[in-house]
């Protein structure tokens, strides 16, 4: 395995990948304890606790009466946008809405000749909370990708929390375009707790979505059960699956695009081409030259980057399935056929003309995707995350009479004689 900017690993054997695959980190007891204290304080003291934590963590003292941002301010921000950026945001919102409209579930009903009926009713959640991170950057695309699927689902209220120290016009404009109904200037674990339990000023929600730092992620973990959450997101990930038709400069550019997020980002190239594997380190160095976030990207590539050289495409596909990446680009002949064999990936980008950033901004599917190998069992954020399903059952008298012996036999076998009695009461 080569050292330097990026490591290189030949496979098979596939068990050589084991040290590089996602592994659930052990609990950070200090973080968990601190966040538990914040959540408990907000639950007990409401607005007063949020104000105290906002002074302590954000250096801002805001009276609760000043927390809410008016929707007029969002519309004003949209009006101030440079025309090109406004057009981009409008296009993003329209495409995300159009895509997610195809995810609507209508429920169903199944009737029998005796008049009995079973079915499923689909109902949107009443109120959803959206965490909008601050910190190093402003991410209006995250507002669009989280809020628009909720809007399409029919959620009545979308409540956003934004950095208390100030929020950019682009984020406010994204809120205006995405159906956000209320906005509060609070952040951190205390904002998650406020959304989960409600305070004098902040309404309680049914589900919390949106990215955040480790404090926010831990707070979301701790309020599960009181509310639903989208997922506990880890560092962002990209795997480029490439053969000898791939352009090394394009592969390098896409890996750099992922690595520039932060030092924990993960970018892999899984390839059947020894030539590409040889050329890629130099191509990565060239891409880093002059890149505005080169220091961050270099650290990510050194720590988490990997070139996996496979004997054939079957092995390459199995590497992808073992890694179960958030993003998968396929730069190879027969991309559709290869994609059909991939079992685990959050989103798949087909062909050289489809770099992962199109999914971040404009393609249409939400860019909120499973990370840390959870694509083995989890799905991208969608309309289905903002609805609940209710079973419907109607028995006719004749069906109940016919099923009565079976029902009473099962109930009595479980020692639930009241269940059996409820059936017998209707059948003599």
Short description:
The protein has 428 residues and is an alpha/beta fold. Helices cover 44% and strands 17% of the residues.
Question: Can you put this structure into words, describing what you see?
Answer:
The protein has a six-stranded parallel β-sheet with strand order 1-12-11-10-13-14, sandwiched between helices. The protein has a six-stranded mixed β-sheet with strand order 2-7-6-5-8-9, sandwiched between helices. A three-stranded antiparallel β-sheet has the order 3-4-15, with no helix packed on it. The chain has helices at residues 29-45, 47-58, 71-80, 83-100, 140-153, 169-178, 188-197, 214-223, 248-259, 274-288, 294-304, 313-323, 335-341, 357-361, 397-413, 417-424, and strands spanning 7-11, 68-69, 108-111, 117-124, 127-131, 157-161, 182-184, 207-209, 228-229, 237-242, 266-271, 306-310, 327-331, 347-350, 387-394. 44% of the residues lie in helices and 17% in strands. The mean pLDDT is 95. It is an alpha/beta fold and 428 residues long. The chain folds into three domains: 7-25 and 234-376, Nitrogenase molybdenum iron protein domain (Rossmann fold, 3-Layer(aba) Sandwich); 46-107 and 124-229, Nitrogenase molybdenum iron protein domain (Rossmann fold, 3-Layer(aba) Sandwich), CATH 3.40.50.1980; 395-424, no CATH class.
List the helices and strands and how they pair.
Layout: E1 7-11, H1 29-45, H2 47-58, E2 68-69, H3 71-80, H4 83-100, E3 108-111, E4 117-124, E5 127-131, H5 140-153, E6 157-161, H6 169-178, E7 182-184, H7 188-197, E8 207-209, H8 214-223, E9 228-229, E10 237-242, H9 248-259, E11 266-271, H10 274-288, H11 294-304, E12 306-310, H12 313-323, E13 327-331, H13 335-341, E14 347-350, H14 357-361, E15 387-394, H15 397-413, H16 417-424
Parallel strand pairs: 1-12, 5-6, 5-8, 6-7, 8-9, 10-11, 10-13, 11-12, 13-14
Antiparallel strand pairs: 2-7, 3-4, 4-15
């Amino acid at each position: 395995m080569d050292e330097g900017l990026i490591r290189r690993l030949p496979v098979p054997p596939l068990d050589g990948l084991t040290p590089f695959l996602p592994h659930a980190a052990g609990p950070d007891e200090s973080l968990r304890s601190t966040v538990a204290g914040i959540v408990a304080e907000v639950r007990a003291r409401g607005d007063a606790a949020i104000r105290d934590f906002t002074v302590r963590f954000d250096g801002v003292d805001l009276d609760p009466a000043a927390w809410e941002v008016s929707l007029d301010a969002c519309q004003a921000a949209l009006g101030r946008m440079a025309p090109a950026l406004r057009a981009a945001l409008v296009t993003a919102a329209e495409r995300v809405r159009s895509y997610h409209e195809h995810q609507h579930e209508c429920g169903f009903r199944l009737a029998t000749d005796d008049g009995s009926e079973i079915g499923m009713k689909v109902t949107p959640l009443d109120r959803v909370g959206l965490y909008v991170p601050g910190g190093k950057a402003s991410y209006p695309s995250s507002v669009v990708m989280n809020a628009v699927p909720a809007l399409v689902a029919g959620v009545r209220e979308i409540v956003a929390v934004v950095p208390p120290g100030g929020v950019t016009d682009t984020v406010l404009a994204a809120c205006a375009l995405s159906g956000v109904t209320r906005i509060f200037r609070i952040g951190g674990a205390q904002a998650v707790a406020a959304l989960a339990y409600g305070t004098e000023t902040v309404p309680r929600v049914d589900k919390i979505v949106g990215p955040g730092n480790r404090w926010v992620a831990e707070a979301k973990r701790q309020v599960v059960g009181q509310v639903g959450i989208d997922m506990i997101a880890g560092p962002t990930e990209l795997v480029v699956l490439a053969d000898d038709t791939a352009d090394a400069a394009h592969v390098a550019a896409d890996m750099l695009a992922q690595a520039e997020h932060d030092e924990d980002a993960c970018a892999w190239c899984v390839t059947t081409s020894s030539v590409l594997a040889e050329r890629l380190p130099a191509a990565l160095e060239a891409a880093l030259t002059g890149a505005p976030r080169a220091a961050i990207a270099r650290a990510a590539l050194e720590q988490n980057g990997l070139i996996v050289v496979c004997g054939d495409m079957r092995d390459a596909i199995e590497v992808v399935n073992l890694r179960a990446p958030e993003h998968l680009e396929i730069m190879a002949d027969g991309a559709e056929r290869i994609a059909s064999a991939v079992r685990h990936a959050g989103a798949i980008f087909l062909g050289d003309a489809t770099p992962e950033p199109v999914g971040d901004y404009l393609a249409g599917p939400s860019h909120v995707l499973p990370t840390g190998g959870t694509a083995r069992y989890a799905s991208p954020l969608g309309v289905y995350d903002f609805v609940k399903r209710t079973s419907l059952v109607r028995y006719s008298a004749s069906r109940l009479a016919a099923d009565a012996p079976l029902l009473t036999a099962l109930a009595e076998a479980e020692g639930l004689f009241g269940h059996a009695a409820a059936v017998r009461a209707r059948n003599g």
